[in-house]
Amino acid sequence: MIASVLPTYSRAPLSFVKGEGSWLIEADGRRFLDLGAGIAVNALGHAHPALVDALTTQAQTLWHTSNLYEIPQQKALADKLVEHSFADTVFFTNSGTEACELAVKMARKHFHEAGQPERVEIITFSGAFHGRSSAGIAAAGSEKMTKGFGPLLPGFVHLTWGDHDAIAPAITDRTAAILVEPVQGEGGIIPMPDQCLKGLRDLCDEKGILLILDEVQCGVGRTGRLFAHEWAGIEPDIMMVAKGIGGGFPLGAVLATEKAASGMTAGTHGSTYGGNPLGCAVGGKVMDIVADPAFLADVNRKAGLFRQKLEGLVAAHPDVFHSVRGSGLMLGIKCVVPNGDVVTAGYAKEVITVPAADNVIRILPPLTISDAEIDEAIVRLDRAATSLETA
């Protein structure tokens, strides 16, 4: 008999009942150090007092009205995102998946309104993850994402990640945009080098097409800048964000330049829940904290500390770990043994990591993790590795 919850997840046998900062408390009382942060969602940890206050204050006044009316909290958050980014305008969604849908629609509508309706194709790269909607899986293109879900949404051209020579020839008079993650998350914590992002920006400008960045996982302070592309000194035309922007509350957004968004007029897109007062009140507080240069500087400091200690951990366990990679507090450890074994061993030592492709475990702690908690993370990961060596 099928379970009441559709069995599309292979869940760990853990039931968390409370969260405190970088910690999750299991129903049996065990305290787990959370290096997953809900897959880079809980940017400020669990039950951050400022977010709790923002949520409860708003919840006591107004939750939802719909986008038929002005929403002051939405306007305030949009203003903050515009102030701190390349964007001129923002559309709010409930998730990164919904943000992907709009980003695809926006790019195609832009060229339709510009008198080039044939420009519908979007170039994407192997290893990508852009959500699980029809557009998202078609954009990724991998068999794992698409098998059994055909016919797929057409209009995506898939290239091999890192094959620079293939990109320019793939651009035709049907190309609308290039869509890429500055750091692949599900693909195994693989950063795109700054010079490559710059090259993509230059190529898009040369060919007159749009650059769409998926910063759903790598954005909102995760890499030590508010948005990961800032390290390369470039700006996209359209950008998808979610996860960390809500600090745990379901919230996403599409940021765009005025030019890229010029085709999106009244009636061309909508969302019942997107940008409601409750979500935007929380998102506004997240932005107040994460966009502070002092906060981002501390993320960078802690990222350097954590990476240094992880390098030592890898060196101490060469039969378990291979290497460290990533950016900021979006780190990955490529494993020698199956990464699932490492994640499971971590559960036994009360530390949470997240698996990814290329036999990698992801280290995505709250951006508020303390130095002492970083030390404790290394201790617990060391114990997990040792248990695999002696098994």
What does this protein look like?
- By secondary structure, this protein is of the alpha/beta class.
- The longest helix has 24 residues, at 293-316.
- The model has no long low-confidence stretch (mean pLDDT 97).
- 36% of the residues lie in helices and 19% in strands.
- It contains twelve helices and 17 strands.
- It has helices at 37-40, 49-59, 72-83, 96-113, 134-140, 143-146, 167-170, 194-207, 277-290, 293-316, 339-348, 371-389; strands at 16-20, 23-26, 31-34, 89-93, 121-125, 156-159, 175-180, 183-184, 190-191, 210-214, 238-241, 252-256, 321-327, 330-335, 351-352, 354-356, 360-363.
List keywords for this structure.
391 residues, 4-stranded mixed β-sheet, globular, 17 strands, single chain, 7-stranded mixed β-sheet, alpha/beta
Break the fold down into its secondary structure elements and pairings.
Layout lengths: L15 E5 L2 E4 L4 E4 L2 H4 L8 H11 L12 H12 L5 E5 L2 H18 L7 E5 L8 H7 L2 H4 L9 E4 L7 H4 L4 E6 L2 E2 L5 E2 L2 H14 L2 E5 L23 E4 L10 E5 L20 H14 L2 H24 L4 E7 L2 E6 L3 H10 L2 E2 L1 E3 L3 E4 L7 H19 L2
Parallel strand pairs: 3-15, 5-6, 5-7, 7-10, 10-11
Antiparallel strand pairs: 1-2, 2-3, 4-12, 8-9, 11-12, 13-14, 14-17, 16-17
Helix pairs in contact: 2-9, 3-9, 10-12, 11-12
Summarize the structure.
The chain is α/β, with parallel strands linked by helices.
Question: How are the strands of the biggest sheet laid out side by side?
Answer: 4-12-11-10-7-5-6
Structural class: alpha/beta
Mean pLDDT: 97
Biggest sheet architecture: 7 strands, mixed
| Percent range for β-strand residues | 15-25%
The rounded distance between the terminal residues' Cα atoms is 36 Å
Number of helices: 12
What's the oligomerization state? single chain
- The overall strand count is 17
- Helical content (DSSP H or I, runs of 4+): 25-40%
Q: Write down the overall geometry.
A: globular
- N-to-C SSE series? EEEHHHEHEHHEHEEEHEEEHHEEHEEEH
Q: Low-confidence parts, pLDDT < 50 over ≥5 residues?
A: none
Report Rg.
21 Å
